[in-house]
Amino acid sequence: MTEAVIIDAVRSPMGRGKAGGALSEVHSVDLLASVVRGLVERTGIDPGIVEDVMIGCVGQAGEQSATPGRQAWLSAGYPVHVPSVTIERKCGSGQQAVEFAVQGVLAGMYDVVVAGGVESMSRVPMGSARMGADPHGPGVRHRFPDLVPQGVSAELVADKWGLSRLALDEYSARSHERAAAAAASGGFDDEIVPVTTPDGTVVSVDESIRPGTTVEKLGGLRAVFGTDENRAALPHIDWKVTAGNASQITDGAGAVLVTSATRAAELGLRPRARIVASAVVGDDPTLMLTGPIPATAKVLAKAGLGIGDMDAVEINEAFASVPLAWAAEFPTDEARINPRGGAIALGHPLGASGVRLLTTMINHLEQTGGRYGLQTMCEAGGMANATIIEVLR
């Protein structure tokens, strides 16, 4: 039986997704090309044997509109016969790209695939692809008249699970603390590919981490979605989602080399991990962010494992209420949940986040002697991906 393995996984540093951010002067294509080139050079493979380049990207407008994986491959100087495809499953796009690559190998369609993701949110702002259009349409709005923006969904989740403002801010301060500790100890060094900006500056560390973040500082921020209109529509909500307990808008990219185990052996490549199981689900589109809960149950059942078998769990911190609600349903040692911080500290470059989580999780498991890791990602529209990996030694 064919087995799919992960040979290597890398990511760019995370840059603040606004003008003046560390990566804001780097074209989206060249940002992705940097990590693709880093992946190829680290593994030593002949780029001509890659059969496809699968790239997750949400904002498919402007610089990211022309199949960014194809353009990045060409920018890196690699053979023109290698094609690419863009994958969009909202925040899970990069994770889905890896899973599609794995599925292609398992099906016998591929032996060597590069999967990844990119999002330059400073250069292609969130929502650019929609440009004010209603993405739902009258049929959906008739069926679900209570649809709300994602930030309001985060408030609904916090309310449903009884999460206090203090709990959200405590979680968020801990995310920064853990990310800062990992960065200071060199824990991220093995996963980051430096990116050179047009002026020659080499960016090699995450710009988004704020060491010294405290609950007190976070407590001084206003609730972003507590507008008069929202308060009138949802008078029972105690508004508590702020810029400090939500993910950061970020520039970033990542890439993963997926091969069959047989081809890896033929090429003399040592696999770092394998995908044990993966799952996708849909959930309530109004709550929107709860998908990781049923996705986790589904993927654990497929893998024949329990939550106690997971040495690390990476849950995308779109908002602090997401991992906290998940933890209420899957009681887990909190030290295992986002042990190196998450998107609140490291940022959330949409289409690239799934690859960032995977890369960080593999490195953490290797460096701490762990075996199994669970990664799950909430997605707009009430969807979620979940993946279980096993580190190979």
TrEMBL record:
Q: Does the keyword Transferase apply?
A: yes
Q: Which residues form the Thiolase C-terminal domain?
A: 270-390
Q: Which InterPro entries match?
A: Thiolase, Thiolase-like, Thiolase_C, Thiolase_CS, Thiolase_N
Q: Which GO terms fall under molecular function for this chain's record?
A: acyltransferase activity
Name the source's superkingdom: Bacteria
Q: In what residue span(s) does the Thiolase N-terminal domain sit? A: 5-261
- The EC number(s) attached to this protein equal 2.3.1.-
- Keywords, alphabetical: Acyltransferase, Transferase
CDD domains with a match to the protein in the record: thiolase (cd00751)
The family classification in the record reads: Belongs to the thiolase-like superfamily. Thiolase family.
Q: What is this protein called?
A: Thiolase family protein
**Originating species:** Nocardioides imazamoxiresistens
What does UniProt list as this organism's lineage? Bacteria, Bacillati, Actinomycetota, Actinomycetes, Propionibacteriales
